[in-house]
Amino acid sequence: MLAGPVQTTLEDGVPLSEVEFVVVDLETTGGSPADSRITEIGAVKLRGGERLGVFQTLVDPRVPVPRRITHLTGIDDRMLAGAPPIEWVLPSFAEFSRGCVFVAHNARFDFTFLNVGLQRLDYDPLPPPPVCTARLARRVVWPDVPNVRLQTLAQYFRTAVRPTHRALPDAEACSEVLHGLLELGGRLGIVTLGDLHGAVRARGRPNFGKIGLADHLPNAAGVYLFKARDGRVLYVGKSKNVRSRVKSYFYGDERKKAGDLLAETVSIDGIACASELESLVLEARLIREHEPKYNRRGKTWRRYAYLKIDPGEAFPRIRVVREPKGAAVFLGPFATARAARLAKDALEDVFEIRRCTTPMRATTRFAPCALADMGRCLAPCDGRVGLEPYEELVRSLISSLSTPDGLLAALEARMHELAEQERFEEAALARDRLRALAEALARSRADRWLLSGGEMTLRHGADALLRLRGGDLDRGGDARPIGAPSPRDRADEAAVVRSWIARNRPRLEATETALVEPVSGGAELHRLLSQLRGSTREDGASAPGDVRHIQAASKPYPAEVQRLGRTVRPWTPSGSPRRRPGSRSGPSP
């Protein structure tokens, strides 16, 4: 017997052969602990299949026993006359079950009845979670035994004692059923207390039999791969404990995709990693390599885009491209071409660079577009500006990507101006453009020293040393520098390294090249991104980064809430939306 109480929820790694169980059955006057009372308690304590003790007593409920209960159990008022009251019984039972894992058939009923009684007497409740043999049977012997009543399971396991609707015989039968279920469960990988609790919680019966595929996986940090019959990789994931994480898929993941994944899976591979960063990098690399069917970001890298400015052209323009090829200036990668176009529009709002797609040489001339007449393009197409002034504009544009203080200030001022004029849809679009550009500029600053430099040694924790070469994790001389900007197929690797460094803030031990960046723009980027990322809260309420709140606090603005470029107007108590003069009736979409 254990010397002290054990918080079983913290002992998930204990082998089942070392766990003490107390198998309990109650007889009561009814089905509700609020207005019914216990009439009999039976319990069997066991460990490793060996019986350690028995507890049995009748209990005086101090209320008449209903005739239907007497007919079912044989317990009547005359039998209970002289039995001890529950106040005498529960302290003895609490001591008997101390340090044990609670087990019962349909355990919620017995567990709740006992805990209600203990709380009435001001005793500590039994520690959760209880183990239900009915739920465990649905995992282990279904569909061979679709009816998981105790009587049926006792017949299936040929128990020496059969249930009779009396507390001790039912508890003894349940203990033998538990022993049989644990023997069969061992073949499915239910070998520790944590496995047992997970199996009881599991809801997905059809694929639970495949849980044995996880038995060989390491109990360590790493990456796991679900594979189909033809060897295709269906899903790639990472975890601090690969074996435990994989088994959790079989323990009641209700997502339809999880069920479909398990149905197709015939094998699971695990790769142990020395650090969290290594598992993150390896996961990103395997997802890009295999493009698994069930990974949401399996093919997202194909949508990445860049902004390209080629100073070698006669009259350069800003282009959205899919690959960072050639001797040019690039910004990105952006998650989508739409995000790249938002940043492109932001730059073109400040710099009067040409937007037409017609190829141009130094002598090319054609009719200008409307932007020239609006003063938003220098119009080299009709000779209004020569090569040198235009090249100066392009150099200013490229310089602003490194020192963006003036650029960010101009875009923010434009957003404020639109909001002051109550042009909220345009202000929200200006906000989205500013955010897309600011996030890209912040990433490019980090990538400039992370991806372009040589070898870098980081210390995380007391002893862990990590070496990066050109942004790639060096795991024994196999590092392949990513390069800046990162190509599409390695952008996810660069992203996880950047994110891990920002989250863990490791100590820099050594570096081949100095880590420097321009002072200009750093503070502004941090301030703007802190505001813009908080501009849309999940509850739809305005937040400090909202278009209205970025402005001077002394100026009140109408109660429109900007979300994703759309204006939602609140309703008045009468049910009619507030309207500005000239606005259309009814709420905005």
Can you walk through the features of this model?
- By secondary structure, the chain is α+β, with helices and mostly antiparallel strands.
- Among the domains are: 8-193, Nucleotidyltransferase, domain 5; 206-298, 3-Layer(aba) Sandwich (GIY-YIG endonuclease); 454-511, no CATH class.
- The chain is 36% helix and 16% strand.
- The chain has 18 helices and 17 strands.
- The protein has helices at residues 67-73, 77-80, 86-96, 107-120, 133-140, 150-157, 167-185, 193-201, 242-248, 256-264, 276-290, 337-350, 370-373, 387-402, 405-420, 424-450, 491-504, 522-532; strands at residues 20-28, 38-47, 50-58, 101-104, 131-132, 222-227, 233-239, 267-272, 305-309, 319-321, 329-334, 455-460, 464-469, 472-473, 507-511, 561-563, 566-568.
- The strands form 5 sheets. Strands 3-2-1-4-5 form a 5-stranded mixed sheet.
- Strand 12 (455-460) and strand 13 form a beta hairpin.
- Helix 6 crosses helix 7 (167-185), helix 11 packs antiparallel against helix 17 and helix 12 crosses helix 16 (424-450).
- The longest helix has 27 residues, at 424-450.
- The relative contact order is 0.06.
- Mean pLDDT is 81; it is low at 1-10 and 536-589.
Overall CATH architecture of the domain at 8-193: 2-Layer Sandwich
Strand order of the largest sheet: 3-2-1-4-5
- Overall average pLDDT: 81
Radius of gyration: 34 Å
Tally of individual helices: 18
Strand content: 15-25%
**Quaternary arrangement of the chains shown?**
single chain
Q: What is the fold named in CATH at topology level of the domain at 8-193?
A: Nucleotidyltransferase, domain 5
Beta-strand segment tally? 17
